[in-house]
Amino acid sequence: MTMLEQGTISIHTENIFPIIKKSLYTDHEIFLRELISNAVDAIQKLKMVSFAGEVDGELEAPEIQISIDKDKKTLSISDNGIGMTVDEVKKYINQVAFSSAEEFVQKYQKDADQQIIGHFGLGFYSSFMVASKVEIDTLSYKQGAQAVHWSCDGSPAFQLEDSSRTQRGTTVTLTLQDEEQEYLEPIRIKQLVTAYCDFMPVPIKLDGEQVNRQRALWKESPQSLTKEDYLDFYRYLYPFQDEPLLWVHLNTDYPFLLNGILYFPKLKPDVDVTKGNIKLFCNQVFVSDHCEEVIPKFLMPLRGVIDSPDIPLNVSRSALTNDRTVRRIADFIAKKVGDRLKSLYNEQRDEYIQSWQDVGTFVKFGSLNDDKFKKQVEDIIIYRTTYEPGVQENKEVTQASNAETPAVQVQSEEGDAWQDVTSASSSESQLPTSNSQLPNSQYTTLKEYLERNKERNENRVFYCTDEAPQATYVELHKKQGLEVLFMDSFIDTHFISFLEREYSDVKFSRVDSDLDNTLIDQDKAAEIVDPKTNKTRNELIKEIFEKALNKPKVNIRTQALKSDDPQGTPPAIVLLPEALRRLQEMTALMQQQSAQFPEEHILVVNTAHPLIQNLTELSQGSIVQGSGQSPSGELANLICQHVYDLALMAQKGFDADSMKAFVERSNQVLTRLTTR
Question: Does 580 or 647 have the greater pLDDT score?
C-alpha cells in the first residue's frame, strides 16, 4: 500500500476530539444513523451523475451492507454509491466535515444543557463517539480513479494511502471502544436501523438480510394509496392501538418542502394533550419521536409522520420554536387539518358524526388557540341535542307551512347519517339515553339552535355537561319543549366561555342553574292563606323544610314544576346559580384543586308533587309525645331530609359519612311507613 499523504488535521480547538466523543450528540447510537445517511446520499448522487450520462454501463442495484466482526471488534457500513477520489477525501473528510465539527463545538460547548435535535452536516465525525479508530476505504465512479484508504485514531493525526479496492463505493469501518461493544450485537444494530433508518429508500442489509422497511408511505401520492395502506402504516407505527378515526396526507413543495401523514386517534381519558406523538423525519431519516415545536399545540395528540428538510435541525428547541419557516409549516399543517375536516363534513357526514366525540376535542381546542383555524371550522362545530323533530313542534306555536326550519343533523341506522328534520320520521328521531355514538343521535350547530329557538327563548342556550346526574333537569326541559345541548367533553367548560365571547348577546345556562319560567306553574291555590295557621301552603312547606334540614346556607324555594304528570316530576331539585358555580370552578382551577360542592345552593321544593302536598298534613299530626313532636311530625322531618338527599344525589357523590347517614335515614323512613 502506497502512502499518499500523512499529516495532521488543521484545528484551532485543542481538545476537539474529546468534546466530539462526549458532546456531539446526546445519544451515541446516533452515529449509525449518520453513517447510513451518508451512504444513502452517496447512492443518490451516483444516480444523479448517471442520469447526466457521466457513468459508463449499468448501475447495479443500490444497497447498503452492514458487517460485524466480533473478533476484530469492528463494525462496517458499505455502500455502492458515488465513492471519493483522493482530493475529495481531503476536501470532505479533512476539511469540510471537520470544520463543521469544530464550528459545532465552538457554538455549543459552553452550554452543556443545550438540547440539539440533530446536525446532519457532522455525520461522519459522529463515529468517533464510539470508535477508537475509523477507516474509510473508497473508490470513485470516475474513470481511472485511484482507490483510497483513510484512517484516524481519534487524534488530529491521519493517514491517507492508496487501496486495492476494485468495487465502486465506500466502506466505513469502526474499531469500537471497549465500552461500546453493544454495537457488535446484530440485534442491537437491527433495532437501530428500525428506529432511525426504517424508511430509507435504499435496502439496508445485515449479514445479507434486509432489515429496513424501505417504503415511506408519506412520500407517495395519495391517489395511489388505499384505505388499507394508511391503516397498515398506522398499525406499523403504533401497534396494539385502536384504529385511527381519519387521516390527513400532507404534500407541498412551496414555499417549503413538506410531506407527511397525520392520523386522528381515538382519545383516551389518560391522554397527555401536551405531549407530541408525531415522528419527525428529515429526508426519510428519523430525527425525533416528538416535534412539539413544529406542530400547533392543539394538534399535539395527533399521530403520524412529518418529513421536511426545511426544518432546521442544528438549532436548539427554543430557537426552533421561533423559526419563521417552522411557524409557516405549523400554519400550513393547521390549515390542511381544517380543510380535511371540512371536506369530511361536506362529503362524508356519517363518518364525521361517528368520529365527532374525539375529533370535536381537536376542533374545539384549535378554535380556542388559533384564530385562523377557528374561522375555518366555526361552521362545522356540532352539538348533540335533545331536539326531537315533530315532538317539539307540537309543543310550540304552529309555524306557517312555508316557513323555513333550520336543519338538525341526525345519525341514522340506515347509513343516511344526516337528514333534514322536516323529513325525519319519528322512529328515526329518538334521543339515546347515554352514548352519543349510538344510532339516531341528533346533532346541530349553535347557529341552527339559536335560529330554531329564537321565538321561544331568544339568545338563550340551555346546556348539559354531565348527562347522568343532570338527567332529571334535562327531562324537565324536554317535557316543556326546551331544547338542550350536550356539552359534556372535558374541554367544554372552557369552550362555553369562549362561545360567550364569540356570541356576546347569548346567555348560556346549565340546566341545573335556574328554572326558566316555562318550567314553573303558577299554583294559585298554594298562595291562599290558611286561617288556621295564617300562612300560605308555600310558606308552610318552606318552614317545614327549613326546620327539618336546619341548614341556614341552603336557600329553600317553593315552586310548582309544570308537568302533565306531577308524580313523574322530582319532589325537589338542587340548583347551582351559573355565576356562583363558575366562580367556584375557576377558583378551584387556579388553586389546582377539585371543585367542592358549595354549601350555599338552592333547594327548589316542587309543591305540585303529591309527596310534598302530603307532607303538609303529615307534619301537623295532633298527638304530641314527650319529645315535643308528634310521630307524624318526626316522619315528616325524616322525609324532608330524604327528599333533600335525593336531590343532592343528582348533583354530587356522597362521602362515607353522608352515605352512612343517608342509608340510616332511608331505613328509618321505610320502617316508619311499614309500621301499623
Answer: 647
